[in-house]
Amino acid sequence: MSYEYITVASDEAVGVITLNRPKILNALNLQLINELVEAMEQFDHDPSIGAILLTGNERAFAAGADINEMADASAVEIMKRDQFAVWDRMSRISKPIIGAVSGFVLGGGCELMMNCDIVIASETAVIGQPEINLGVMPGAGGTQRLTRAVGLRKAMEMLLTGDSISAKEAWQYGLVNRVVPVEACFSEALKLAKRISRQAPLAVQVIKKTVHKAEDLPLQEGMDYERNSFYLLLASEDRKEGMQAFLEKRKPRFTGN
Questions:
Q1: Active site residue 65
Q2: What is the pTM of this model?
Q3: Any idea which fold 6-197 has?
Q4: DSSP conformation class of 236
Q5: Which Pfam family is one of this chain's hits (predicted)?
Q6: Which of 26, 29, 172, 205 would suit a FRET pair with 3, their CA atoms being 20 to 30 Å apart?
């Protein structure tokens, strides 16, 4: 399919989605988010794709929401749009999403980054939730995911001041997985996505879902969920192939069954 505000490609078993509104720093409007989620769902249903890589450009991953869409809209109009429903669909993508972020990662861009399962950030990344400066607040998970990632006090400081943090500080707080030179950001993320895409597909997807359950469930309930998921994977053909390959000292040939 063709899109106006994103580009889509595949590299081996990795689906690559690039935000493509460079003149306005990849500002997120409703059409872009709808295109993005549609492309994610297409890759999620494609058995040849094992991981999804999401990126922008060197100036900006995404500098925030497109204010032109909201400036003159009433609260009722924005509620009727139900614009966050599409973000909920993004959270149901079963395959791992790897983010490669550089430049501005602000507002909705930060929320989009936090929807990724793994994030490679370049040294130029500037990350924050500056909505307070516009008299509003995050609405796509910024208060919830940021607090879980960096802790209550740091999240409160960032959200109430609108101050951004550097890629290095984001790494220190666990908001990103690693920081690399800007010229290596995309290639490092793609290399990681390819490595994950070669793993057993069912195990990858079940692990992703189980890890996210850790945010929602008390410890014992999470342990029960993990054990049931473990037993489920024991019934897969990939479990048999993986263990047989280990015993035969060869690389496994996973099929997703």
A1: yes
A2: 0.93
A3: 2-enoyl-CoA Hydratase; Chain A, domain 1 (3.90.226)
A4: S
A5: ECH_1
A6: 205
Instruction: Tell me which of 56, 64, 108, 128 is the catalytic residue.
Output: 108
Token pair 């069954």 is at which residue? 257
Structure confidence at residue 74 (pLDDT):
77
| Catalytically annotated residue among 39, 111, 188, 242 | 111
pLDDT for residue 79: 79
Same fold, 6-197 and 201-247: no
Distance, CA of 14 to CA of 74 (rounded, Å): 40
CATH class of 201-247: mainly alpha
Catalytic member of 131, 141, 155, 193: 131
Told to judge if 108 belongs to the known catalytic residues of this protein, a careful annotator would answer yes
**Annotated active-site residue in 51, 62, 63, 65:** 65
Contact indicator for 175, 99 with CB cutoff of 8 Å: no
User: For the chain, which residues make up each domain, given as ranges?
Assistant: 6-197, 201-247
